[in-house]
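Q: Sequence in, structure out?
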Amino acid sequence: MAKILLYVVICFLASSANGCNIGKRIINDFDMEKALGYWFLLYYPKEFGDKYSCYRDIYGKDDNGYTINSTIVLTSGETVVYLGTITMDDNIINIKYNTFDELSTGYRVLAADYDNYVIISGCPPGEKEVLTYMQFRSQNPDDIVMKNVEEALEQTGSKMKDYVKTTCPLQDPYR
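A: Exactly. Output:
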């Protein structure tokens, strides 16, 4: 028992030393049911942009619970699809991909309006710091949505200037 406790303390200290503070949330009752469907990452953290040129998630639900289907276009042009499961715990979306550990982690929901955007933040394995992602229902959010996202992002302690906009070649089912 003492070894397990020591291991937990060491893991906690290691994650604290890594500076992984997954952000200030401004939403306290995230509803995964309202978030089901297509989401596009149109703005990437600058650190993320050299790996992926496009990223689309489909949050779903089956008999076993919540699922995720992530289609990723790499900067090389190759398209890959990763499937996984989602569990929820106090505004944390715990994503476990079947074959993609690089982004399997807990993501705190910082802000969401469900119809247009959700802002999540997490510390994926191998990353040096927390990464915050803005996901959109459409590849073409209007000016009002973008203003709301910028305001929500600032409330979480981030700024839009820290992100890179991409052009996602994946089909937008809402156009």
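Confidence is low (pLDDT under 50) at residues 1-18.
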